[in-house]
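In response to reviewer comment 3 from the previous cycle, which asked for concrete evidence that the modeling workflow produces usable outputs, we include below a single protein chain processed end to end. The sequence was submitted unchanged, and the resulting structure tokens are shown without manual editing.
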Amino acid sequence: MARLITVLAVAFGTILAAVPFSPADAQWVFVARKALGRIHQMTEGQQNGRSGYDFATVILDAPADKVFSTALEMARKNTSVRILMQDPSQRRLQIAEGDRTATLNVAIFNDDVSQLMIAGHAGPGEGSTASMVVQAVMRVCKEMNKHCEVGN
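The workflow returned the following structure tokens.
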């Protein structure tokens, strides 16, 4: 009987250790699931006659290295852009199209979730790059077979 109680206590302890009980963790998972695929954008207007920056970001349920390698391969295949800088170890890439530049960065949230961020900057006398950075995020999502949409 004592042996049975010991076995049950060990089994219960193992199960207890494996089950997450933190409400904060559960809330984080809920929020993260709602944010997956939702593209957020922001524009910083012109200041002192200099063009502003446009930003777009999305959380993807994909490993960061996979997101970066997909974006890098797409940039390599795109003959209208030139790659100015690439740093696979930091998952950072900078490209240019004419006087417009964009910097792409992929951050790790965990092994299977990452955040893709793109910042665009227009050259002198050129218009906003907002739609271009959002379109770039959408193209990466499409290439990775991920559903993404522009958030509110």
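The longest strand covers residues 100-110. We consider this sufficient to address the reviewer's concern, and the full set will be provided in the supplementary archive.
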